[in-house]
Amino acid sequence: MTIQVLIAADQERERVVLRYLLEQLKAVEIVGEAGSGQEALAFIQEHNIDLVILDVNGAARAMEAAAAILDLHHPPLLALLGSEAELAVKAFDIGAFDFVLKPMELKRLQKMLERAQERSLEQDHLKLLIQSQLKEKMNLLLDRYLQTEKTYQLLPVRGKGKITLLRQQDIIYCESQARKTAVCTKTGSHLCNFTLNELVDKLNQESFFRAHPAYIVNLDYVKEILNFGEGSYILRMHYSERDIILSRSRSKLLRQRLGI
């Protein structure tokens, strides 16, 4: 895994030495240089960086810039360089990834980069894990929403000076009767002004099926499918003594839908 690195130091000599050492190592790409911590902060906000190596030796505002970098919403890894061991305590207090005591040694930089690679892999794995968990949660919420919509979607029917709101899961079948439509439920039948064609669009497509030009059935209530001869069938329903005719033109669609 290649680590993209930004070098930041007030003194050009320090940047030259650090670049030279890093170029001796594998799996590292130097994507830029900054002359101060503030310049590094501005560069990070415009580019995708894995690791910032910031020299804080002798720069009064360098530690402030380091803290500002780590305070970003998605900060890169930050390694600080310094010639005073006391700076290491401050570095780790603000959350720096590493502190390298100067003068820099190639082996020490190699160890820092190996740790940066391990940390980046861990972060990538964590991001994938979080994305996977978020996707599962979103799918679960969507399923619950769809199920709720299916369960609680209501059908208004008028009759006897009132409007009755029928839960779709309570509807057994709908039958065309002259200019009105009878909606049969477990508790009784209701006449409504919707045509069957209009009800096809209003009812949940997962549960309801147009069995015949005169009937829409709720498949959740189909108890038996009886052969009526010549390719026609009769649907026996739960909670109803009415036999529903399944036309020949619709029987094939129903078999495909039910997998029979």
* Major sheet summary line: 5 strands, parallel
The run of helices and strands is EHEHEHEHEHEEEEEHEEEEEH
- Domain count: the total is 2
The Cα radius of gyration reads: 36 Å
CATH fold-level topology of the largest domain:
Rossmann fold
Which stretches are poorly predicted, pLDDT < 50 over at least 5 residues?
A: none
CATH superfamily descriptor of the largest domain: Response regulator
* Overall CATH architecture of the largest domain: 3-Layer(aba) Sandwich
Widest beta sheet: strand line-up? 2-1-3-4-5
C-alpha geometry: rod-shaped
Count of helical segments? 7
Strand content: 25-35%
Spatial gap, N to C terminus: 53 Å
Mean pLDDT across every amino acid position: 87
CATH class of the largest domain: Alpha Beta
Could you state the oligomeric state of the chains shown?
A: single chain
Instruction: Summarize the amount of helix as a percent range.
Output: 25-40%
List how many beta strands DSSP finds: 15
- Output the structural class: alpha/beta
